[in-house]
Amino acid sequence: MSEEDGPASRVAIGLSFGNTNSSIAYTSAEGKAEVIANEEGDRQIPSILSYVDGEQFQGAQAKAQLVRNAKNTVAYFRDFLGQEFKDIDPTPCHQSAHPIEKDSQVAFSIQDTESEDVSTVSVSEITTRHIRRLAVSASDFLGKTVNAAVITVPTNFSDAQKEALRKAAADANIEVLQFISEPIAAVLAYDARPGASLSDKVVVVADFGGTRSDIAIIGSRGGIYTVLATAHDWDVSGTKFDDKLMEFFAKEFMKKHKNEDPTKNDRALAKLRLESEAVKKALSLGASASFSVESLSGGYDFTNTINRTRFELLSTQIFAAMTRLILQTVEKAELDPLDITDIILAGGTSHIPRIANNIKNSFPEGVNVWAPATKSDAINPSELSARGAAIQASLIADFEMENIKESCEPVVTVTPHLKHALGVLCISGDVAQGKFQPLIEADTPTPIRRTATITTPREGGDVLVKIVEGSRHIKVNKVENPAKANGATAKEADSDDSSEEEEDSDNDEEETREKVWHVGKVIAELAVKGVKKGGKVEVQVDVRPDLAVSIIAREVGAKGGVRGSVEAPKLENGSA
Amino acid sequence: MATAQIQLPLPVLPTGWSAEKDFKSVNSLSTPVHREIEPVGPHFLAHARRKRHKRTFSEDERIQAAENVKKVEDVDDGDISETEDPVMLQRDAKDWKNQDHYAVLGLSKYRYKATEDQIKRAHRKKVLRHHPDKKAASGSNEDDSFFKCIQKATEVLLDPVKRRQYDSVDEGADREPPSKKETQKGNFFKLWAPIFEAEGRFSKKQPVPKLGNDKSTKQDVESFYDFWYNFDSWRSFEYQDEDVPDDNESRDQRRHIERKNNNARKKKKTEDSARLRKLVDTALDLDERIKKFKQQEHAQKNKKRIEKEAEAKRAAEEAVKKKEEDEKAAKEKEAADKAAKVDGKKAKEAAKNAAKKNKRVVRGAVKDANYFATGDASASQIDSVLNDVDLVIAKIDNEELAALTANLNGKKDASAIKGVFNEEVARLKSAGKIKDGEVKSME
Ligand SMILES: Nc1ncnc2c1ncn2[C@@H]1O[C@H](COP(=O)(O)OP(=O)(O)OP(=O)(O)O)[C@@H](O)[C@H]1O
Known about the structure:
heterodimer; A: 576 residues; alpha+beta; Nucleotidyltransferase, domain 5; Substrate Binding Domain Of DNAk, Chain A, domain 1; 3 domains; six-stranded mixed sheet; five-stranded mixed sheet; 15 helices; B: 443 residues; mainly alpha; Helix Hairpins; Helicase, Ruva Protein, domain 3; 16 helices; 60% helix; elongated; binds adenosine-5'-triphosphate; DnaJ-domain-containing protein (chain B); cytoplasm (chain B); ribosome binding (chain B)
């Protein structure tokens, strides 16, 4: 990087660089993040480069070359960067240029010049060329040369992969200000919306892309994010839906042309894939879609239609696997579906309505599922990464690189998180025991301060503020089918045809699950005396980074109040 | 962060609660978990500013921060690496039905226990090694047949329906039950527990009860065998269908094949139920606990019986003894009473006789004393003295009479006799039994 690339001359964008698609975004003067369309009008730019007679094509144009010029078309290469050849999975490149080994790294053997010679181009060089093109598109749109970016990467991107990407970008004259993880970018894109609330949340980000699916469980506390668990899956992803449709249309085609198997012919296969993907996308919007390919195989044109229901039937297994993947990751975070407040669906595949609907049905009622099918004000799932990156870029664009780097070091980011929730004991109805009311949830990073106002007994007087730790448990109740429980009244209403229904609901035991708090260690007790009738008590709890706690309790409106502090826990040995 | 509103009331301060300045510190918070917060967003910037404010971190702090942090990304723990059998690598993918899908993915030691996640990771590991592009790079000429085997294995194992069908007939997970002989050498539990565990994989009801050990209660053992005699199995045999109908055949042909398959599946299912039943029979037969419980039960019953009998005997004996004793006592009492009666009569009689004799002696004494007269006693004198004697006799009991008699015994002298009477009368007077002048002749 040259010296003059200081903050003053910086033009920074957000960049999402996927195996399948890339997108670029910027933050407008009004502070709104927007995804930029390239010259062809695409906001999702296929991460593909193709070479025809020495001319380089990118994006949709390059993708089209997969049919005629597959071996000089490089696609699905992001994950290869910074990895040794032995560690990569070449499967996605089945219908494009295959990766080869060069100095134990990954390269492609392509004819990228006018000459007939085949050259070996490293994945790093390919990446540089791709980023350069993206930067040009962004610069054209912004009217100034883009020279810096925040780039999103999966949570499991290694340091070696980041370094390789940093270098590849630098070679394209793009300074990487920061790598941020894709799911965090998605959360940021939602939290940056005007009016978004920063309440305590546990967010699942399910990123269903083209070649992989990534799940992250994120604790969100007042705009500070902690990744609690992740999962990565290469067996369920967008292309698997294409495979189902390809199989379907190939069969349909062969009903007409018995001896023309389009899957046995590379070019036919490529056409089949491209059109199947188009059909899949169309089915995210419409109830049916038509498939139409000229000269699919053996010179025969083929048109067909499929409706959404049929597509969903073909794909049931994939849908189920996606939902399972999310539930397994929740479990991995040692959480329960009842702990989840929001599910953000990201990635192009999240446009498929059934995915969002199935997920919604597998979680408790109140959970927000942010996807076009389940929320009208959901953000386009394909744009979340780039938007989040653009927001972060605008936040840090004015900082010195050194400053940014230092803020990202573990000594700054590693933070003690509360092991248990911290709350206050209140009285509930008939039970004489206290009922735990959380003030600060578990997994909240320190320092943290929380305030609550609490009602007092009807007559006021002297009250006890008992600050305790609480742990969340899941209580499973088996209840008889509610229809059956209400059977008596239902039967009276219409006694004729109730017998049949009854049989159905027989031994239909339903399980209801609820979150209950178990009271743990007592931390402190405070007395607030002489509270007025109908008065309220304000309690403020302040947990310092060393886990020392200070607490203030006072009647609302009164001065002074009771205050005190609790010592930090002793350091566990072994940490030294 | 806005102030939270809690609608439940705080408790009333318990009487007797007191603390200096109304604040009691009780416990420190639990030890925290060190996690990495994401260096993203406006609120993080504030955090970083606060944390870095006017300070430099020591090398130690940096190292600690990096080391203490709880990792969230999986690291390959090497749980799915198995050496690959060279024969397996030569397999023809067309024969996929007969391949050991778990072995192909290096999951032989997990089999039906392998999680979806493990299968996926195993698949990826295999792909990294066996993808045809990798082979081309290493210059080997191995065809992509084994790669296809991997794909097929993954397809089967990641499809819950197909996986069950395969698991139903996965011989690699089968466990041959030990022979009778083998079992009888001891080690019943060690030998049979894995058998039941393996069979348990087919149970619709999970978890499956465990075989337990020689300390298991009778109830546990009974419900264990109960479970197995009512085993509800999901095992099915379509994986072994000989013919698979395809779209090109006629409807009738397809029907025919389907029927044939269905019959074969049913037959195998029946055979399998019989096999399991026999296996459970064998185990039950060899299970020493069953014998032990029977013996215990038997012994318990016997013990009770013996105890009962002994008790009855003892009671009977006691009753007899008691009766005898009672009778004896009654007899003795009777005899004693009788004797006492007789004695009493005799004594009374003797006493009566003695009294008569004594009275005679007493009366005789006054006669010997010539009725206290000098010369011949007049009739009135005799009368008055005898009257007085009778009065004295009337006033004294038999003992006093005997004593009086004894005093008079051998006394011939009239004045001595009179002296005895005078003494007796004086004694009676002082006892208040005779008044002055009542017995004139003896004063
Ligand atoms: N409207 C749509 N309906 C259904 N699928 C869609 C739609 N739009 C895009 N997709 C699919 O989304 C996938 C691409 O997702 P995305 O743009 O998130 O890629 P990516 O992040 O580069 O993925 P990866 O890195 O996993 O390959 C493709 O399989 C594409 O077909």
